[in-house]
Amino acid sequence: SAFCLFFSFAICILTQARSAILAMFLAVIVLLFKKKKLMVACLGIVLFFMMLTPISNRFTDMNPFIALRLDIHFITYEVLKDHPITGIGYGMETYGNKQYIDLEAYQKRVPEKYRGSYIHSDPHSIPFSIAVRTGFVGLALFLYILFATFKMSFVSIRQEKDDYWGRMLLSAFVALLVVEFFEPLQNHVHEVIYYTLLAMITSVWKLYNSDRTEGLKS
Predict the structure, then answer these.
(1) CB neighbours (10 Å) of residue 210?
(2) Which of 7-16, 22-31, 58-67, 80-89 is modeled with the greatest confidence?
(3) Residue 91 and residue 64: Cα distance in Å, rounded?
(4) CB atoms closer than 10 angstroms to residue 63
(5) Nearest-CA neighbor of 207 among 172, 167, 155, 145?
(6) What mean pLDDT is predicted for residues 88-116?
(7) CA 116, CA 177: separation in Å to the nearest integer?
(8) What percentage of the chain carries pLDDT values higher than 90?
(9) Quick count: other Cβ atoms within 10 Å of Cβ 24?
């Protein structure tokens, strides 16, 4: 795990992606929560290298980032207001297709100080993307899946024998969710990773429940 963590850290620093750095930061906390000294050391190393590289400027100079994201989210909000229940449909290209959704018209509703010079064809966030494509019905189902996943993860972590798999999978899932919240990740590679994590979390939870049931019977 240390080997994988090292290369993940190097990739995050070299790409200078804020969402990836934040995801790794939270993943380290989840993974090493029981080992406080090691966790503090790892987080200290992350912060140290951040201060030595230009990526620190990307966190301190937030105005362009905020303006860009607010423009996208305002447009998404306006589209969602017109299609609140079932959304615009889950076609991957529907949102950015002028034949179905006129994003330029929606951009005119955005306060002028938050309008960007470029209209993005994606909400740039998985929760917002699901909400605008499937409405509040789809968003509620998505949030329930997240709730069930976290619940199963915490049950697996609380087991007395070995919480390694539960904690490792939860840290990976948290990292993925953080990146999902800031980036458009709806592609086949992301979906394979996402649903593989869901399947593994469910499998670990099921194995723990099976062992617990057998223990109670004996």
Answers:
(1) 10
(2) 80-89
(3) 30
(4) 7
(5) 155
(6) 80
(7) 26
(8) 16
(9) 24
Secondary structure (H, E, C), the chain = CHHHHHHHHHHHHHHCCHHHHHHHHHHHHHHCCCCHHHHHHHHHHHHHHHHHCCHHHHHHCCHHHHHHHHHHHHHHHHHHHHCCCCCCCCCCCCCCCCCCCCHHHHHCCCCHHHCCCCCCCCCCCHHHHHHHHHHHHHHHHHHHHHHHHHHHHHHHHCCCCCCHHHHHHHHHHHHHHHHHHHCCCCCHHHHHHHHHHHHHHHHHHHHHHHHHHHHHHC
167 contacts: CB under 8 Å, gap ≥ 6: 30, 31, 33, 34, 157
- State the average pLDDT for the chain: 80
Segment 183-211, tens digit of pLDDT: 776 677 788 888 899 999 999 998 887 76
The token pair at 60 is 């301190």
Q: What is the pLDDT of residues 147-175, one digit of tens each?
A: 999 999 998 888 756 688 888 899 989 98
Please report which confidence band the pLDDT of residue 67 belongs to, taking 50, 70 and 90 as the band edges.
very low
Instruction: Give the Cα separation of 18 and 23 in Å (integer).
Output: 8
Q: What tokens were used for 128?
A: 């917002």
* CA–CA gap between residue 56 and residue 62 (Å, rounded): 11
